[in-house]
Amino acid sequence: MSMHIGDGAINESKHQHTTMNLKKMIPATALFAIAATSLHAGVASYDKKFVVEPEVEEESLCDIIFGLPTLYSNKEGAFLQEFKLIGRYHGQYHWLDSNQGNNHDWENRRQRLGFSMKFLDNWDAAFQFNLDFDDGRFFSDIEDFRLRYKVNSNLRLTLGKIKAPITNEWRTSSNENLTFERSRIINQVVPNRMGGVYAEINTGPWLFELGAFTNTVDSDWAQPTFDGGFSLFGSVGYKADIGTTRLEYLYSDIDTGASVNVTRGYEHVVSLNYEGKFDRFGLVADVIFAAGSGNVSDVYGFILMPSYDITDKLQAVFRYQIAGSDSSNGFQLQSRYEREAPNLVTSRGDMYQAAYLGLNYRICGDNLKLMTGVEYTTFEQTGGSDYDAWTTFSGVRVSF
What we know:
Helix content is 16%, strand content 55%. It has four helices and 19 strands. The radius of gyration is 36 Å and the shape is globular.
C-alpha cells in the first residue's frame, strides 16, 4: 500500500517536475524564436543596407550638350532606332607672312547641317547641306548623302553622294583631322564627293573596299549627274597591332560633260598609306602618285605626320610634306592660304615642301576643340622664282 502510495507520490512529483520544466521551456523557446527572428531580420537588414549597388556613371557636361541633337533613341524600336541632327562649324583665322606679300582674315571654313537615322536594325542614312549665311537661300548646296546597309559583321554596302576614300587624310573626317588643311597633294589630286556605290569587306585582319562613281555634279545643288565619265576605286588593307596599312587605287575616265567634273583631271591616283597608335604616340604616313590626263601633269608626294597626346585633352602634331611634278608648272600652292599673297608671282611650280607644327585642345573630344598651328612653305615657282611663307592658324571645330 505504502509502495503504491509512494509510486503515486513519485509519479505526481515527476508530473509536477515535468510541468515546471515545460513552463520554463515555453518562455525560453519563445525567447529563442524571437531572437532567431530578430537575428534573421537583422541579417536581412544588414544585407540590404550594405549591398553595393553598381555605380551609374554620371553624364558629363559634354555628354549632355552633345547629346541634345539626338532627338530619338531606342535600340528596341521596331522600325526607327535613332534619329539625330548632325552638323559642324569650323571657323579659322589665318595670318600669311610671305616674301610675296602678307594677308590675314577670318573664314567660316565649314558650315553644315543635316540629319542621320538608324532604322530596321541594319540600316542607316544621313544627309547634309552646306550652309551659307550670306546667301539668300541659306542652304548653299548638298554636301553629301548616303544610304548604308550592314549585311553582316563583315560586309557593308553604301549608296549616295560619298567619298572615294583614297589617302589617309581624305578618308578621315574633317572633324577629326589633326591639321587645319589636308596636305597639298591630296587637295590637288583627290576628287570631291561623287555619286556612287561602295562596299566594305572585312575578313579578319584584311580590309577590302570597292567603289564605282559618277564624276560630275550639277552646278546648282551639286547633285550627282551621269554625263561626265565614271571612276572606279579599290583598296586592300591589313590591320595589325602596330597599325593599319592600305594600298589604294582610283581610276577616272575623264570626260568634261555638261556638268561640274570633280576628278581634278587625274586619270590614275595611287596611295600607299599607314596609320598607327602606340599609347600616346600616333603616326600617319602616305606615299601618293597621280597620273594626269591630257594637259594635266603627273605629280607625286610624301607625307609624314606624327602626333603626341600630351594630356587626355592636349595634343601636339607635326607634319612634313614634299611633293613635285614632272613639269615646271604641274604643281600649285594651297588655295588656303598660300595663294592669298597679294604680290604672288605665280601659283604654279614644280617642287613644294611644307612643315607644320600645331596644338589641338579637345574640350569635348572632337565635338569641340580649339586648334592652333604654324606652317612654313617653300615652293619653286614657274620662271625660277622661289616662294617662302609662314602661315599661322587659329580656330575652333564644333561638330555634332
